[in-house]
Design brief:
Blueprint: E1 3-11, H1 18-31, E2 36-40, H2 54-61, E3 65-69, E4 74-78, H3 88-94, E5 98-104, E6 113-116, E7 138-142, E8 154-155, H4 160-179
Parallel strand pairs: 1-5, 1-6, 2-5, 6-7, 7-8
Antiparallel strand pairs: 3-4
C-alpha cells in the first residue's frame, strides 16, 4: 500500500449512506490538501465502457487489459476472464502513491472502518445485524441514531469535519503504536 497516512473504510448495509460519506470525506480531505484515492467494491456486474465504442470492441475481441487515455483522465480496464476477483491488497498495490485511501465496501476485510447506520435502520432485523457487533475493525459509528448499547464512538454523518478529524487521529495513533 502506498498511502502515506494509511487506509480507512466506510462500510454498512445497502442504503446506509456509505457512498455519500465517502464523497463527503474525499471533499473534506482534499480541501485540507490531502491526495485521496478510493476503492469501491461492487457486488454486482458493472461496466465502465460503452457498447460499440473502440475500447469495448477491443475487450470483446479478447484483450485482457485495455487502457483508455485522454488529456483529462485515463482508465485501465482488466477483464478477469475466469480469473478470480483480485484481493483488496492486490488492488491497493496498483494505486498510485497518495496520502489516504478510502475504501467503500469490503465489509469483511481487516482495516479500520466506520459503520454507517441510518436512524431508520435501528434496530436492525436479525438478518442484517449491526456489523460492529462482529467486526473488531469497526472503530467508529456514523449515525444520528441514539445507540446506548454500542461502546464505540458515534458521530453524526453530517459532522464530516469531526469524522475526518477522528480518522486522521486514529490513523496517527495506529501508526505510532506500530512504530513502538
Amino acid at each position: 500500500m502506498k498511502a502515506r497516512l494509511g487506509i480507512f473504510g466506510v462500510t454498512g448495509w445497502k442504503n446506509s449512506g456509505k457512498t455519500r460519506m465517502v464523497a463527503n470525506l474525499v471533499r473534506e480531505f482534499t480541501a485540507r490538501g490531502l491526495k485521496v484515492s478510493t476503492v469501491k467494491h461492487a457486488h454486482h456486474s458493472f461496466d465502465v465502457d460503452q457498447e460499440g465504442r473502440d475500447s469495448w470492441q477491443h475487450r470483446q475481441a479478447g484483450a485482457s487489459e485495455v487502457a483508455l487515455v485522454s488529456r483529462n483522465r485515463w482508465a485501465l480496464m482488466h477483464e478477469l476472464r475466469k480469473e478470480k476477483e483480485p484481493s483488496l491488497d492486490d488492488i491497493l498495490a496498483r494505486l498510485s502513491p497518495c496520502d489516504l485511501v478510502i475504501i467503500e465496501g469490503y465489509k469483511r476485510e481487516d482495516h479500520p472502518k466506520i459503520e454507517m447506520i441510518r436512524e431508520t435502520q435501528t434496530p436492525r432485523p436479525a438478518s442484517d445485524p449491526m456489523l460492529w457487533r462482529e467486526d473488531p475493525s469497526i472503530v467508529l459509528i456514523g449515525s444520528a441514531a441514539k445507540m446506548d448499547e454500542c461502546p464505540l464512538p458515534r458521530l453524526d454523518p453530517d459532522q464530516v469535519s469531526d469524522i475526518a478529524d477522528f480518522i486522521l487521529a486514529w490513523l496517527e495513533k495506529a501508526r505510532s503504536d506500530a512504530a513502538e
